[in-house]
What we know:
Layout: H1 5-10, E1 21-24, E2 29-32, E3 37-42, E4 45-46, E5 54-55
Amino acid sequence: MAIDPDLLDILACPDTHHAPLLLDEAKQTLTCTECKRVFPIRDGIPVLLLDEAVRS
């Protein structure tokens, strides 16, 4: 399931608060361009919880 590009434009890392997130549709993840945390996307919903993130 794809994420709406308009939604992706307004999402931000919950740690850095302003860094853009990079979408990897194949892995169903969003990666912060600043802190490099990788957030899962489950059933088309980004899970932007620091406890759920993995550092890349």
